[in-house]
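dude i think i finally got it to work??
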Amino acid sequence: MPDLSPTTLPRAWPFEEARRVASRLEASRKPSALFETGYGPSGLPHIGTFGEVARTSWVRHAFSVLTGKPSRLLAFSDDMDGLRKVPDNVPNPELLRAHLGQPLTRVPNPFGTAEPSFGAHNNARLRGFLDRFGFEYEFASSTEYYESGRFDAALLRVLERHDAVVAAVLPTLGAERAGTYSPILPIHPRTGQVMQVRIEQTDPQAGTVAWRDPADGAWYETPVTGGRAKLQWKADWAMRWHALGVDYEMSGKDLIDSVKLSGKICRILGSPPPETLTYELFLDEHGQKISKSRGNGLSVDQWLDYGPPESLAQFMYNQPQRAKRLFFDVIPRAADEYVANAAKALVQDETERMANPVWHIHAGDLAQAKGSPVSYTMLQNLAVTLGGASEDVLRGFVRRYAPHADVDEPFLARLIAGAALYAQGFALAHSRRRDPTAAERDALSELADGLRALPPATPGEDIQTVVYEVGKRHFAAADLRAWFGCLYQVLLGQSEGPRFGQFAALYGIAETVALIEQALARAPAAAA
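look at this
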């Protein structure tokens, strides 16, 4: 293990985050660290859920390597939140409509599965989702923590500090909400609804709050303990940090102000807030913020139709504090980045590997890192060139190009299958082969002659040398990009592509010559 002092820390953001957690524990003298991620079970797990848990897991692993101290990751479900509206994508919506305002774990399960409630069903989906990707975590239910009394001491502390918490929150509210705000939301003893009402009296000694039902004016005194009340979410977040001693939690840019406010409340309760990381939000193909309600994003299952899980992890690893487009066209680059990083890891020393995304993605176990003799981009370009070739056809080309490769190995098999599907679903529809100009025809003709002179098994690098030399003779040195653009646009119908020599080796030299001949048979385009 290399020296991991602050001056020699690998240049990787999980280690930078881990160092902050390590400093926190050194100051607090805690023997272990608690990492947390939150989940709102009014909806199903989504790609942002994957990103948050994956990124937190990478920081946690870096912390363990950096300090040798134990840690836990708590996946906390806010399943005691009241059901605010009936989701559009659930069966039997009328079953839910009668239970609006009730905690999600008291709302009937409309899906017909074994779980007893809507919240329990979605919690099961969350656990299945996280287990699918092999995350190491502990699941926690807000309902269970409230009803078991685990939060009782912290809730009584909120009651003691009620006025100070209210004073911290009021400046962030509009006039109407400020008039009735309390961090404590009693559960109605008759309707079971989570009540957002004015708290008329607080009694820290008795551990109760008093309030009136706005519907009929009935007066209630409700204990704040034992699951008979819950907290408004920003206060709930702070209370949880305080009660559990959370050391680290990340959240999206849209929650910056909430993190600040919850941190302030946490201090009011007597605890330092955790170390936090604000990650940027995902954007759709038009640069607009992705919204679950608008459905303008990309789901995990949609990603995995076209790319292996490692490509999704690579995408999530890259620069979490920079906004990124999350659309289908980012999948090929993410897959190729992963393959390139897996290849680098084979020749890097230990310190360099610890800065490699693949090291973090696989929690330091590089035996899990999988490579490929061909890139995703090459495979999908090949599929497009072949008019939307099937997975089986691509496997045949890969066998010929790299006889040593096992095309049945799960990672390579998924790469091939995903690239074939991507070409059929996206790339082929946008493939437009343009005609060569007169000047380009001369260069292409010479390239065809040069390729004919090569043996069929010529390596891609040697083919690339021929391509490069032809380009130098026909294009100015500063304009060689135009030559490679010509190859992509005229021969492949793409705006960009892989190193052409490698593509020709995969496609076949004779087949590449035939492709050039077909282009030359088309009428020349007018000179630009």
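DSSP finds 23 helices and twelve strands in the chain.
im so relieved honestly
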